[in-house]
Amino acid sequence: MGVLLDVRDLHVEFHTSEGVGRALNGVDLSVSEGQVLGIVGESGSGKSAIAMAMVNLVARPGRIVRGSVRYRDRDLLSESERALQQIRGREIGLVVQNPKSALNPLLTIGRQLVNVIRSHGRLNGRAAAEHAVQMLRKVGIPDPETRMHSYPHQLSGGMAQRVTIAMALSNNPRILIADEPTSGLDVTIQAQILDLIQGLVDELRSATILITRDLGIIAQHCQDVAVLYAGRVIERAPVRVFFRRPLHPYSETLIKAVSTTRQRGRKLMPGVSPSIYELPNGCALSPRCPLVQPICHELPPELRELSPGHFVRCHVRAAGDV
Amino acid sequence: MILDRRQLRHLIRTRPSVLVGAAIVGVTLILAAIGPSIAPFDPRTAIPGEQLKSPGFVHLMGTDDNGMDVFSRVIASPQTDLTIAILGTFGAIAAGIPLGLVAGYYRGFVSELLMRLSDIVQSFPVFILGMALVVVTGQEIRNVVYVVAVVNCPIYVRLIRGQVLFLRERPFIEAARAIGGRDSWIIREHILANAIGPVMANASVTIGWAILLTAGLSFIGAGVRVPTPEWGSMIAVGAKNVYTGEWWPSVFPGLALAFTVLGFALLGEALVHLADRTRR
Amino acid sequence: MTAGRYVIRRLVLLVPQVLGVTTIVFFLIRLLPGDPAYMIAGSLATKDVIASVRRQLGLDRPIWDQYIIYLDRVAHGDLGKSWLTSSQVTQDILQRMPATLELITLALILAFCIALPLGMLTALRPGTVIDRLASAYGMLAGAMPDFWWALFLVFILFGKLRVVPAPIGRLDIALVPPPQVTGFYTVDSIIAGDWPVFWSALAHLALPTFTLAFVYAGPILKMARSTMSQALLGNFVQYARASGLPGHVVARYALRNALLPVITMTGITYGYLIGGAVLIEQIFAWGGLGQYAVQAITSSDYMAVSGVVLTTTMFSLLVYLAVDLIYLAVDPRIRY
Q: Across the interface, do B261 and C144 touch by the CB < 8 Å criterion?
């Protein structure tokens, strides 16, 4: 199983009137064929920037300032716009957070879906329209032939998300990036959408990157998880290992916060994530970490493999203090 | 809408034109204050025998066909134009704020009526309305001020009303009500304070338009009377000379007019942009 | 609300608007200080004429009666009599309207054709030379007085370079206007097959149209550039890119959404132009509504003034109606 997407040392900055915001500070991750990787983070972790960064679509005032995103031997960050256009939507599909705002309000969903299908060249005219109807049926939209003529504002959130999933998967991509696909949807719909994604992805044997702030989703649908904090991956592990024994203090807090069997006496980490405009020197967690040592304030820790497949970015943990 | 240092620097960096605008506005304001006093020749007096002299050392911008020094009149005009524009804009705002507040805060018949009236006033083509009003009220500076105020008032009514509608649903207003604040206090303290930013920002743009309106009215003879120095009427006086090749009586006031309006527009635009962003 | 109901609602809205406008114009005259009959009859009138005018206009009746009479007259197209031209104001206006309409319509089309593509282009290529030039133009054009530009261009292009005809009207003095079908010299001369007249009309239209278009394209350009830039930053545009749609399709997506405010701005400009063209008409001796308005103003011809105000405002209202209907056609969110 080869590595499909390899992100190395990705840095994204935002230049605004508040100053320079460092949203991503050296993100490393990779995903292989058939793998489902979950990326979890809270506000300020950089997860909003990462999906677009991976397809080299960071909009002003943001900028990718360093790093590489290798997809099958090519660095997406140095490819031409033309080459990227072939890859996006065809090899890499994207599903985003607010599906209704992702669709053009002035065109029917059928038209938009057909546009995506046709722009990747293989089908045209009637064949594309038929494929579109098929995709709509596949994502569970009832009466798809009629729905083709609906406008985005006529759809519910859940329906709109199904449409974007159809768009993202219509050209059988090797990778699907789902950026908070269920935030803003009702809970029952959330489950449906995630199951839908999982089913389709299994069928296509694509790799999936699922970005979310919901650990429950990670637990249920992902094989591996990467935890994002202040623009860096601070822990990376297979899901079961992660939930059984998280190594990073932040991960522990994350899990404890949602766990139903919260042990009394073990406090949650106080404080808040740092602003991207004012990141601390050394480890980004040093202002609030209960295990903090002097070295944490000075030197940012490296991501180390502390057990097979389990990576952690922490001086204290790396030194073996448990 | 108080600007801190960093926002100011960012504004200048992203929109350097705001400095140009501010400079022009500054110069114009200074001229409005001291223009007539520093003019080399009396801007209202014709010098016999000096008609249509081309620009030179004595008459920097030449003279018009009445024998008046163009340069002196050009720098004396801001006093007229700016006074009218600023007073008129101020009038529009002074009338627009209470009307807008009422229209936004109190729902119902009065509010609807105000908005319909505002719409109707805005349907009149601005220039035609201006002309008609001046005719009806008489050609005096005071009336031109009223015209500017009336023509621009609906803009501010709409602006304030929009602000009020936006703010009244905000939680902090509900909170203020919940702790028993009286309506008038809420309006004053919260809504007005928040609404004033965009108003001030738009004022600069309005002043620019008002100057154009005054000049246009004076050009056709419906604004300021001769011999009061005013760019529009100067252009009119010099218009017939343009065809025979004496371009300076019209071109110089025109350039001055364009620059001034541009300055106010640049400044205003930058302020509006800033006001929009601080609101969010 | 369905499309049909929206149209009806919008048309119904026109009624109070028209009523409001006519009422305001009515009061424009009546609330004057001094004797309206004297002012309407004109400063050259004798006592008898003034008395008869007073009776004619019903000024000896209570104000409410006067209002009804006025409304009735306007509804029948009677806008009173101009003391300057001694003919019916309605006739005067109808005679001159086509000249103005021809001018401003061509100017608007030209302005739109300059502003929209330029605005789109510069939004797609931000930061380039053409973008900076275009935004400078947008700013400047709005600030420059149109009458000054007209004079300046007349000076250069006619006075110095002689590439355009003298600014003395719509046609060469020697030529006779074509038989009236629309009142537009360009159209009518084509219909009549009278080519010399057509070219002359076009030549005379060139400079005033260009001046107006040059100045009024500015605000439309600014709007087009700004809405297009905003649209390009919109979520759905980002998503369209992320779906691998080619550049020109993405641009079309953005344009469609950016177009609506531009249409509004164009409509507003058209309504403004009918007043704004006044100064241009004066300079080019156009013989249209604008020149008529100026004459009326300077001679205090009240019936003519109020007639012009009424007519131009009705035009404005119709333009806004058209804009709303266009919105209806383009934006599905209103329909369904």
A: yes
pTM as predicted? 0.81
Q: Is C2 on the interface with A (CB under 8 A)?
A: no
Nearest CA in chain A to C260: A106
Residue C38's pLDDT is what? 65
Nearest to A201 by CA among A232, A224, A235, A178: A178
Whether C333 and chain A come into contact, CB under 8 Å, resolves to yes
- Answer whether B228's CB lies under 8 Å from B76's CB: no
Say which of A52, A90, A96 has its CB closest to residue C244: A90
For B66, B220, B231, B242, B254, the CA distances from B69, given in Å and listed in that order, are 9, 22, 13, 17, 15
Is residue B130 within 8 Å of B217, Cβ to Cβ? yes
Give the model's pLDDT for residue C57.
64
Alpha-helical (H) ranges within B5-49 are 5-14, 17-38
Cβ-contact A115, C249 below 8 angstroms: yes
Q: Does B116 touch chain C (CB under 8 A)?
A: yes
Compute the distance between CA of residue A48 and CA of residue C133 in angstroms, rounded to an integer: 35
- Which residues of A sit within 8 Å Cβ distance of B? 16-19
Window B:181-220, CB contacts with C under 8 Å? 208, 212, 215-216, 219-220
Give the count of alpha carbons within 13 A of A322, CB side only: 6
| pLDDT tops 50 at residue A277 | yes
Whether B146 has its CB under 8 Å from any CB of chain C: the answer is no
Check CB contact of B128 with chain C, cutoff 8 Å: yes
**Within an 8 Å CB–CB cutoff, is residue A307 touching chain C?**
no
Report the alpha-carbon distance of residue C147 to residue C145 in Å, rounded: 6
Substitution target from B17, B20, B135, B207 for chain C, most C beta carbons within 10 A: B135
- Residue closest to A48 by CA, chosen among A255, A218, A212, A214: A212
Task: Determine the pLDDT at residue C35.
Answer: 63
Partner residues linked to A238 by β-bridges:
A224
Residue of A nearest to B278 (CA): A17
On the 0-12 / 13-18 / 19+ scale of CB atoms within 10 A, C214 is buried
Which three-class secondary structure state does DSSP give residue A89? coil
In chain A, residues with a C-beta closer than 8 Å to the C-beta of C238 are 52, 57, 59, 102
Q: Whole-angstrom Cα distance, residue B64 to residue A297?
A: 76
Which residue of chain C has the CA closest to A169? Answer: C243
Q: Is A120 on the interface with C (CB under 8 A)?
A: yes
Say yes or no: C322 contacts chain B, CB-CB below 8 A: no
Q: From CA B96, how far away is CA C252, in angstroms rounded?
A: 40
| pLDDT higher than 90, residue B59 | no
**Alpha-carbon distances, residue C162 vs B168, C16, C103, C206 (angstroms):** 61, 50, 21, 13
* Residue in chain A nearest B12 by alpha carbon: A17
Inter-CA distances, C42 with C38, C54, C202, C279, Å: 6, 12, 38, 24
> Which residue does chain C place closest to B130, by CA atoms?
C275
Which strands make up the sheet holding A224-229, listed edge to edge? A92-95, A175-179, A207-212, A36-41, A224-229, A232-238, A310-312, A304-307
> What would the DSSP string read from start to end of A230-288?
TTEEEEEEEHHHHHH---SHHHHHHHHHH-SSPPTT-PPP-S-PPPTTSPPSS-TTTTT
Mean pLDDT, residues B272-280? 66
Residues 6+ apart with CB under 8 A from C163: C157
Rounded CA-CA distance A58/A234 in Å is 23
B277 contacts in chain A (CB < 8 Å): 17
| Residues β-bridged to residue A227 | A40, A235
pLDDT digits (tens, 9 = 90+) for A59-97: 888 899 999 999 988 898 888 888 899 899 889 999 998
Instruction: Say if residue B1's pLDDT is above 50.
Output: no
C309/B contact by beta carbon, under 8 A: yes
Using DSSP bridges, classify how beta strands A175-179 and A92-95 pair: parallel, antiparallel or unpaired.
Answer: parallel
